[in-house]
Write a structure and sequence with these properties.
This protein is an alpha/beta fold. The protein has helices spanning 21-28, 37-50, 68-76, 86-94, 111-120, 130-143, 181-188, 210-229, 256-268, 280-283, 317-321, 408-412, and strands at 7-10, 13-16, 19-20, 32-36, 56-61, 80-83, 102-104, 124-127, 147-152, 194-200, 236-238, 273-276, 287-298, 304-308, 327-329, 336-342, 351-359, 366-369, 390-395, 398-403. The strands form three sheets. Strands 4, 13, 14, 15, 16, 17, 18, 19 and 20 form a nine-stranded mixed β-sheet that branches. An eight-stranded parallel barrel has the order 5-6-7-8-9-10-11-12, surrounded by five helices. A three-stranded antiparallel β-sheet has the order 1-2-3. It starts with 6 loop residues before the first strand and ends in a 10-residue tail after the last helix. It binds ligand LLP. Residues 61, 63-64, 82, 105, 165, 202, 205-206, 240-243, 277-281, 317, 321, 374-375 line the site of ligand LLP. Its EC number is 4.1.1.20. Belongs to the Orn/Lys/Arg decarboxylase class-II family. LysA subfamily.
Length: 422
């Protein structure tokens, strides 16, 4: 569910599907991402139920969380994948997702990535520009195949969300501008190695207001009519992802049913097969980032800091988008305190919460940063020489490692000492 959480307090301790988080921290160390499998499955079911009346394919947007186990889970439930690079395509294939359920996005696909997608037999490639369309046609010709493509239209709708995650506006690099479309359609009529089968949009991420989708889809449907009029049989309409989740219980997300209520009737009329690309919705609330309180300190102004062993290298969203993530003490304490929860990285933006009231957990205690299933581990980095954490999947109370913690040896494995001249 958008606001689903499979993390609950049991006998004063935060648990995932009944598995106590302290024991997981003990076994696997910290920082640690802990994912509830049940949460993945139930979020997918909730999403599918909302759009059930529509002939559709849900393509999980792998960029939100690309762990092979997560992708495999959705693949086994029947989903396809939306991938944004050769690397994500590789991951989706490794996870066992059939290529005919994979769609390839990306505003800057390299020729080798286009060739890889064509060789893999993906369902379609999205086209983001006239030049890219020519490139796909040329590469398909070299490969001796006809590439199925969808045009990503920029509907020029500015969805209300953080400016860094709005994509459907003419200011942004994404999609094809409406002024370019007639040129694209006439070019399509002359190319022999591409076949237009779809139209696509994606207006941004974490969008609460259904009306932005309605406005953008209205524009996409205009293009749909235009394309049909020009003799193109459009099989697929892809309306992208961006469906919101609850990060802050005080600001609950709009239910997915509200989006379906508005969009399904508009889409049904077209008779096209619909593609949906949820990322965050399926994974955000499936995972917490567990970290240990290393030190507590305060300054002369009375300000208090909890210095923990995870940081912006494991969750960059507060630093990058001023995002709110709940921070809970794994063990409940009666005393509350207002503090900044900060990491060990040498940046002032390395914080999870500022001036937040939290349980006054002791040094050595554990904190859980909530809603870390989307755009957390995938955006992790080695900055400051940090090792990417382990990831654990909890399934019915049992826990299994799904990604090993990085080692110091791996940190230097790709550096090559240049030969020293004498
Ligand atoms: N489809 C396309 C073409 C996309 O670019 C994206 C996300 C999605 C689907 C999935 O969007 P979702 O359903 O997850 O909102 N790092 C940012 C989010 C960047 C989203 C990029 N594109 C964050 O942490 O909020």
């Amino acid at each position: 569910m958008s606001d689903r959480t499979d993390f609950h307090f049991e006998a004063g301790e935060l648990s995932c599907e009944g598995a106590g988080l302290s024991a997981l921290a003990e076994e696997f160390g910290t920082p640690l991402y802990v994912t509830s499998r049940r949460s993945l499955v139930e979020s997918y079911r909730e999403f599918e139920a909302a759009f059930a009346s529509l002939p559709h394919l849900t393509c999980y947007s792998v960029k939100a969380n690309f762990n092979l186990n997560v992708i495999r889970e959705f693949g086994e439930l029947g989903a396809g994948c939306d991938v944004n690079s050769g690397g994500e395509l590789y991951r989706a294939l490794q996870a066992g997702v059939p290529s005919e359920r994979i769609i390839v996005a990306g505003v800057g696909k390299r020729p080798d990535e286009i060739a890889y997608a064509l060789k893999s037999g993906v369902l379609l490639l999205k086209v983001e520009s006239l030049s890219e369309l020519r490139a796909i046609d040329r590469i398909a010709g070299e490969e001796g195949v006809v590439a199925s493509v969808a045009l990503r239209v920029n509907p020029n709708v500015t969805a209300e969300t953080h400016p860094y995650i709005t994509t459907g506006d003419s200011k942004e690099k994404f999609g094809i501008d409406e002024a370019e479309l007639p040129g694209i359609f006439s070019l399509l009529g002359t190319l022999h190695n591409v076949r237009l089968i779809g139209l696509d949009m994606h207006i941004g991420s974490q969008i609460f207001d259904t009306e932005f989708y309605v406005a953008a889809l209205t524009k996409l449907l205009d293009v749909f009519s235009y394309a049909r009029g020009a003799g193109f049989a459009i099989e697929y309409l892809d309306i992208g992802g961006g469906f919101p989740v609850t990060y802050d219980p005080m600001k609950p997300a709009t239910a997915i049913e509200r989006f379906a209520e508005k969009l399904v009737p508009m889409l049904k009329e077209t008779g096209a097969k619909v593609i949906l690309e949820p990322g965050r919705f399926l994974v955000a609330n499936s995972t917490v980032l567990l970290s240990k309180i290393l030190y507590k300190k305060s300054n002369h102004t009375g300000k208090k800091f909890f210095v923990v062993d995870a940081g912006m290298t494991e969750l960059i969203r507060p630093a990058l988008y001023q995002s709110h993530h709940e921070v809970l003490s794994v063990r409940q304490h009666d005393q509350r305190v207002v503090a900044d929860v900060v990491g060990p990285v040498c940046e002032s933006s390395d914080f999870f919460a500022r001036g937040r009231e939290i349980d006054d957990a002791p040094e050595g205690g554990l904190l859980a940063v909530m809603s870390c299933g989307a755009y957390a581990a995938v955006m992790a980095s080695n900055y400051n020489g940090r090792l990417r954490p382990a990831e654990v999947m909890v399934d019915g109370g049992e826990s299994r490692l799904m990604r090993r913690r990085e080692t110091l040896e791996q940190l230097t494995a790709h550096d090559v000492f240049t030969p020293r001249s004498l």
